[in-house]
Inverse folding.
């Protein structure tokens, strides 16, 4: 599964990371190396093996439906790059 | 060429919980922007989700209501995409293992024009739990959008159907039925204006008689049945026109514009999405045991399908009547209260589906606002059943009750509507009418059957509707045969 | 004072020989002196620390103090601490003031411990040398030309240079144990789920686990008593009975069965490091431990599996850094898409971007089964290997890292060489097992760590095993030259 430059561009776009052509070239070399390392997995026969998402075989705990959060808008928005009237501002969203 | 439209629905149902699906922030509608957006809602670094028990209960209720498989083990997955109203950059949803599996919803498609009403079963593919996104507010500042995350994290049950519907009427009937059902079982407030119940409609067309599905376009976020009807009609015609003009349908997500009645492709969805679903490592598998299901079932009131069957057997109602009366829990409960207050079942059904519904529709009211309570209607029905008043007279009493008068007997008395069943009195009335209408008597005797009905009409008129029509018939026949 | 155990520091405070303010000031002075060279701390706030120390002194005076009250700890900058700048080593969060406390921070606050500052780390914990930090690399106090390891490199250097009484770290693939080995102190990564992840900035959620970084096993045990415990806000937090991790410290080791995985002593292990480990094994034999050879046949696949799973989870975890609600936003952009693309390109460093791209790729349409699902299946095999091994032994031992601390810049151009640093540590993260690194000697004047791996929830026994060794050796009390 050899990668090429257009793959890097596509992945970077999916991940919303701007990448120049020069950076894409550099990234291609490094990513290809890492993917070669990852390819070692294909040598293992995993027929019939259950995928493991969690190390412990436990199930989801449920929370009571009780309001516990207070309004902390001012505190939270002290970290915000742009707010107006309590709203987070972004360039116009086009639907 | 004759075309067939194929429709499937995905409905986002906001669950009636106090708090969000993964945090303790309130879900109350209409708060100031971002005042119900806690650290989890705005996805601060380091925060984690914990599942709301009530949201799970709601999903179980729905699964039981549509007789579906409820997964003993379901899994939450991340759906990855960037959008400003999606604070984590992924939506927690369910992908491969949804909480509710295959089920069924039976719909009544109403008569339209020369097409008769009919029943149809719509197959539910799945229903899964997920979180709602926030909202983008436009126009606050030139060239900018404002993001309000109060809604972010509100629990949703997304209910997906098979592509089983073949007309806008079927799609709307399904949506209405589902809308009623989720309110019936108490998992959604059904408020479409506030976005509690939103439908995405997948529409495709194909030459009638073929089985392969055409390329579909998805109409997003319809929040009224009227818009759904219009949007499907427009979209169907647009697709047919496009194909007949030799064009091809491109898979797309479209929006309906209520002002123009048209649909248009969304710009933000132009690029193909690659959601990179994977199991959310922050959440563990959701386990639902038989005991969990039994506990929820025990809490649930009778479901519409069961109630419909019971109405048919217990009250000897037709399938259509039973189905109509169980289309809403309020109506069904009202109907049963009328019966429990002593109203005859068949009469109760007729009055609830007829007079009461007509009045409510005309005044755009729900049955909870009816000025005639169940006990009063039962009293009216008793007076019909025991022969005190005729059906015609009952209509007058009903009108008076609707305008606020309450005592049935007092109205009958005041209006002089009591039915005359005294043979002597009826005979006297008949004699009077016969002598005044000799020509009709002659016509009848000459073989004109119609004259009989005319005479009955005259007698009823003379009695101001109070004469017992059955008795009038019998005595009149007797007298004319002499 | 700076080389004292937590127990002794606690006694100094209890006997009022030293106040918490004095103790805290001593460490703050050392930070002023050494931090410009070592760069262990990203944020120091003397006022805040001293205010906590003052409050601790009041508690001590009022008789309401517990063991760790008034003792100054360094906190890895991955933990949100209310009103503290919390950067996670990234430009993305350069100016982020945490509005809430992580569970770990709350636990330390609740016992009246002092937060001495936020320590440097690889950006978003992605790295094994601390060189990916936006705030500059950290120097290894044993040799300033070398790296301290990573990702908890700041905490490691702070512990080694005695710039704190002890520190916290997090370990996703070895980030507590590898720096503990490279900097010569004791570090423990607990069983996954034992310490709540709430407020700990996520790297790879199914692997991340916080733990203590301290001079000795006894110090780690005292910290575990504070850090471990159920937290309802973390769905993966385990409802395990609260333990006293100091209770078993002095159990004799006679009859202890120790497994030596042959894969951990194969090619790639530095010969001098191997010698140190063998000497440590000999010491354990004297203590009565019995050794058995075991095998972890799938362990060699840990690195490929890890470099699928960790980047996949990370690519998703790091999507929230979009410049909308907090964090870095680019100065100039024409539209929303450009705002995202630029803010993220500028806010993340090279290694973080690389891992986001790998993660995005392995999850993307058409590759999920071949990469992600396959990795999860092999993860299961790796966990099964350990399960089988623990039928033969109580404890597993081996080297923590194949070699000693390397030179700054030596591996930055070669990500794969860097990834191999974690070859012996990653498997325990994949299995969710607890692992420790204990100072076991030196190779060319650089510390070497012995790794101890236990079964699930067996931390108390591991600490006992480490403590027994530390009663008969003094590697853990050795201090780097030049740090008086």
């Amino acid at each position: 599964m050899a990668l090429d430059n257009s793959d890097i561009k596509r992945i970077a776009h999916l991940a919303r990371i701007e990448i120049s052509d020069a950076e894409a070239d550099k990234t291609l070399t490094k990513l290809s190396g890492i993917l070669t390392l990852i390819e070692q997995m294909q040598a293992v026969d995993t027929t019939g093996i259950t995928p493991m998402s969690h190390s412990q075989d436990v199930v989801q705990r449920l929370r009571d439906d009780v309001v516990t959060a207070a309004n902390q808008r001012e505190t939270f928005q002290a970290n915000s790059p742009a707010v107006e009237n309590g709203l987070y501002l972004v360039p116009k969203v086009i639907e | 060429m004759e075309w067939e439209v194929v429709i499937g629905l995905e409905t986002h149902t906001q669950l009636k919980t106090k708090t969000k699906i993964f945090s303790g922030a309130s879900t109350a509608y209409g708060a100031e922007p971002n005042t119900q957006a806690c650290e989890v809602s705005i996805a601060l670094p380091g925060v984690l989700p914990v599942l709301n028990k009530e949201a799970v209960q709601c999903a179980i209720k729905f699964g039981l209501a549509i007789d579906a498989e409820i997964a003993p083990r379901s899994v939450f997955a991340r759906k990855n995409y960037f959008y400003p109203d999606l604070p984590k950059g992924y939506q927690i949803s369910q992908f491969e293992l949804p909480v509710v599996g295959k089920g069924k919803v039976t719909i009544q498609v109403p008569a339209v024009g020369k097409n008769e009403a009919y029943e149809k079963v719509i197959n539910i593919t799945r229903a899964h739990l997920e979180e709602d996104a926030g909202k983008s507010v436009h126009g606050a500042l030139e060239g900018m959008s404002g993001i309000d995350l109060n809604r972010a994290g509100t629990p949703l049950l997304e209910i997906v159907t098979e592509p089983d519907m073949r007309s806008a009427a079927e799609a709307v009937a399904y949506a209405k039925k589902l809308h009623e059902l989720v309110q019936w079982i108490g998992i959604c407030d059904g408020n479409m204006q506030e976005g509690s119940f939103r439908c995405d409609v997948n529409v495709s067309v194909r030459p009638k008689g073929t089985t392969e599905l055409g390329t579909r376009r998805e109409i997003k976020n319809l929040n009224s049945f009227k818009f759904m009807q219009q949007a499907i009609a427009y979209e169907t015609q647009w697709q047919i026109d496009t194909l007949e003009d030799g064009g091809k349908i491109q898979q797309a997500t479209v929006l309906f514009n209520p002002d123009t009645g048209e649909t248009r492709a969304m710009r933000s969805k132009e690029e193909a999405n690659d959601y990179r679903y994977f199991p959310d490592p922050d959440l563990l598998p959701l386990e639902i045991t038989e005991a969990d299901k039994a506990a929820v079932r025990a809490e649930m009131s009778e479901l519409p399908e069961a109630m419909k069957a019971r109405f048919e057997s217990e009250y000897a109602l037709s399938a259509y009547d039973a189905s109509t009366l169980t289309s809403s829990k309020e109506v069904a409960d009202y109907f049963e209260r009328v019966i429990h207050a002593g109203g005859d079942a068949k009469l109760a059904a007729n009055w609830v589906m007829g007079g009461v519904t007509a009045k409510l529709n005309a005044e755009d009211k729900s049955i909870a606002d009816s000025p005639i309570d169940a006990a009063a209607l039962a009293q009216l029905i008793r007076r019909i059943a025991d022969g005190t008043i005729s059906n015609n007279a009952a209509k007058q009493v009903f009108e008076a009750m609707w305008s606020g008068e309450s005592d049935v007997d007092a109205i009958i008395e005041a209006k002089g509507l009591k039915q005359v069943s005294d043979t002597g009195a009826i005979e006297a009335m008949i004699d009077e009418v016969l002598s005044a209408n000799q020509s009709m008597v002659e016509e009848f005797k000459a073989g004109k059957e119609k004259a009989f009905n005319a005479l009955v009409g005259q007698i009823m008129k003379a009695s101001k509707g109070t004469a017992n029509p059955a008795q009038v018939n019998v005595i009149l026949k007797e007298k004319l045969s002499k | 004072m700076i080389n004292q155990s937590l127990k002794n520091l606690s006694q100094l405070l209890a006997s009022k020989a030293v106040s918490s303010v004095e103790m805290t000031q001593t460490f703050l002075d050392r930070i002023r002196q050494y931090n410009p060279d070592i760069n262990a701390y990203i944020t120091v706030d003397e006022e805040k620390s001293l205010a906590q120390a003052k409050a601790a002194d009041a508690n001590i005076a009022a008789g309401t103090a517990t063991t760790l009250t008034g003792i100054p700890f360094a906190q890895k900058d991955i933990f949100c601490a209310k009103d503290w700048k919390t950067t996670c080593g990234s430009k993305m969060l350069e100016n982020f003031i945490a509005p809430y406390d992580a569970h770990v921070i709350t636990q330390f606050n609740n016992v009246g411990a002092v937060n001495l500052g936020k320590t440097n780390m690889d950006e978003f914990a992605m790295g094994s040398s601390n060189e990916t930090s936006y705030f500059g690399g950290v120097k290894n106090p044993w040799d300033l030309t070398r790296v301290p390891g990573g990702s908890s490199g700041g905490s490691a250097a702070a512990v080694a240079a005695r710039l704190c009484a002890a520190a916290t770290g997090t370990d996703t693939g070895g980030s507590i144990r590898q720096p503990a080995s490279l900097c010569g102190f004791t570090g423990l990564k607990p069983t996954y789920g034992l310490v709540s992840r709430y407020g700990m900035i996520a790297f790879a959620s199914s692997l991340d686990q916080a733990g203590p970084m301290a001079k000795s096993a006894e110090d780690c045990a005292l910290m575990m008593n504070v850090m471990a415990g159920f937290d309802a806000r973390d769905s993966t937090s385990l409802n395990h009975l609260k333990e006293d991790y100091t209770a078993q410290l002095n159990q004799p080791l006679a009859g202890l069965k120790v497994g030596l995985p042959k894969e951990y002593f194969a090619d790639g292990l530095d010969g001098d490091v191997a010698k140190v480990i063998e000497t440590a094994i000999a010491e354990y034999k004297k203590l009565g431990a019995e050794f058995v050879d075991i095998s972890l046949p799938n362990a060699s696949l840990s690195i490929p599996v890890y470099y699928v799973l960790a980047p996949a989870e990370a690519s998703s975890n790091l999507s929230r850094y979009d410049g909308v609600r907090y964090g870095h936003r680019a100065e100039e952009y024409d539209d929303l898409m450009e705002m995202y693309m630029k803010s993220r390109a500028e806010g993340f460093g090279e290694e973080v971007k690389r891992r986001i791209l790998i993660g995005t790729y392995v999850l993307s349409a058409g590759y999920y089964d071949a990469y992600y699902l396959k990795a999860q299946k092999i993860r299961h095999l790796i966990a099964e290997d350990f399960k089988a091994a623990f039928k033969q032994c109580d404890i597993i031992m081996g080297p923590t890292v194949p070699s000693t601390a390397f030179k700054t810049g030596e591996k930055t151009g070669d990500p794969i060489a860097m990834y191999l640093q974690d070859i012996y540590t990653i498997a325990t993260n994949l299995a969710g097992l607890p692992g420790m690194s204990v100072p076991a000697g030196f190779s060319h004047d650089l510390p070497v760590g012995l790794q101890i791996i236990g079964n699930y929830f067996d931390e108390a026994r591991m600490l006992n095993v480490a403590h027994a060794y530390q009663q008969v050796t003094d590697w853990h009390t050795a201090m780097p030259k030049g740090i008086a």
